[in-house]
Amino acid sequence: DVLMQEIEDLGKISMKTNLEAAALEIRGAKVFRNSTKQAYRSLLRAFGQAENAHAAALDDWLGET
To answer: Residue 65: pLDDT band by 50, 70, 90 thresholds?
Structure first.
């Protein structure tokens, strides 16, 4: 009886630990997702700026020739 209770208690502790670990993984995934979104937006912004600079340089060059 005592041994069974100890096994049951260890199972509850193990379950709680697994749930806490899963919650941490989910939080980590959300942080990664958010940072990935921010990096993607930054790249899009930089790409747009590069396109605008290229278009302006091309307009200047065509205007000079």
So the answer is: low
